[in-house]
Amino acid sequence: MSWRSALTSRFPALAHLPPGCYVVGGAIRDLLLGREPLDADIACNDPLAAAHTVSDRVIRLGGEEHLRAYRVVLPEHVYDFAELLEHDIGKDLARRDFTVNAMAVDLAKDVLLDPHGGQRDIERRVVRMVDASNFDDDPLRMLKAVRMAIVYDFTIDPATLEAIRARAPRILESARERVTYELSVIFSANRFRRAVELLRATGLDVPLALRTSDFHADDVSLTGAYALLVDDPPREAAAMKRLVDHHDRIALYDAGEELARQLPAVLRALGRNDALDFPDFSTRALLTGEDITRLTDLAPGKELGALKRALLEAQIRGEIKTVEQAEAFVRHNRRRNDNN
Predict the structure, then answer these.
(1) Most CB contacts within 10 A, which of 48, 151, 163, 276?
(2) Please, what are the domains in the chain?
(3) Neighbour tally for 26: CB within 10 Å
């Protein structure tokens, strides 16, 4: 197999890079997995000069003085360029997170460099760390191990699990938005039970304050996952939590169809009956506020709003189906309120 041909056929700009450039990480991993890589990461001694061989429009990545990384976005692909650690590809690969990401192709020599056994681990479908100390450089890598195991259907090797467990509290040193991104990928893969199992096995569930338990379904949405695992979840997940215990037609309608349709999987995950009496989410009040004013002489305000809402709820329950029934409902409720 010509690695250079495999890469340049997918990323034509690679053919024009100067000597001393290495394609690293994800693109190689994905090719070995039989997946089409979406972008190319290049490590080299002069990343800015290499980026300019691809395009004049180069984006600087990061803000730290020591960081020299650049991005070129083309219509078909993204190319990222980073400076080789200590200008040595061996040392660069040794500082990477997992063996399956610690491979490189020397484009000039058309050679695959795999000093840490990444090919073997891909064949074994194992996420294995390069070195435990690399988790100390970036604790988010611990959560990335779970993400990779979920996305690629890999296991995490025992030594890597142990290294993560020993450092699990340090996940809180990572920026919240980076943690949120990793969790969003993990919980969007329709492998909810496996995700919970790995978060518990790594010990990351404790510092992340996730209420892991034994669940009974995998097709739980991201919102559903947060509703099940987080005590104080984001707004939409909080609404889902309320639906779990109260999901009559009115509650489902008020939640909206997109959220309500995610509820059965959450109920299955909890081992509960997932049969729901869904309303017609297209239901709208048969009478406008002006119609109700004409029928009742009510001025716009809270009383009129409450009457319109009562009509809508009656429609959602299936009690009112025609305009005539709606008018009779409004008149009856207006007289009853007057009598009270």
Answers:
(1) 163
(2) 3-122 (3.30.460.10), 125-269 (1.10.3090.10), 289-339 (no CATH)
(3) 18
